[in-house]
Design goal:
Layout: H1 8-16, E1 25-29, H2 41-46, E2 48-52, H3 55-64, H4 70-93, H5 97-125, H6 131-141, H7 143-146, H8 160-174, H9 182-200, H10 205-214, H11 217-222, H12 229-238
Parallel strand pairs: 1-2
Helix pairs in contact: 3-4, 3-6, 4-5, 5-6
Length: about 240
Amino acid sequence: YRSHLGSCGNLLESILRGRSPSAREVILQADLSTTNLVSAPELLERFTFKLIGCAAHARRPFALYEHEDPVNCAYMLHLFKGIAIHEQRLDVHGRNRQNVLAVRQAESRELWEEIRELAMDMKAKWSKATKLGAGARYIVNHYDRLTAYLDDPRLEATNNLRERMLRTEKLIEGSSMFRRTLEGRFALDVVRTVMQTAVAAGVPVHGYLESILRADAEDIAAHPERYTPRAWAADRSSE
């Protein structure tokens, strides 16, 4: 997490510069905002990007501005809830290629077709200058990217987990006053990276940090791979 680099797009570009050119195919799921997309010419030449939309982002305007069009928004939210229920049921019954495609290419696709039809109706009703008009146009214009996950079991309907992690990052950043200097931002990046890596590994942050700070510094320098959150957790589970 390199906060001083700027937007998520800049972060992604910095990561891709270290990616092997032989791994040419890159799938990028985001809210499709231009600031979150790759724009560097050398990266666009090295890699082929497949853009995937986020159903949660497409749904959001209709939840925020439901009061402006209660009937249409309520129905739109109902349809998106159906999409979410299908994904939840897949988690309950177990995901494999056959199950995922069976559900997504039948029930989920039917819901998405209804979503597009409703979006077309709302597009005709609401100006693109309004939030609901913009939301309806977003669905219509990005329909293929929003529904790409229906044909690929590896993909997800939303990138909610990643956004929630970034939201935590913003809260940490907002409460860290020393971030106003470049040195402070580097220090903050180190702390945030350690914390989020521990969270992603399912490791208690306080216990992990306390153990690492008490460990032998020379051994850490010689074998840093033994002290990552995941390695630390594995070592504790074997004791």
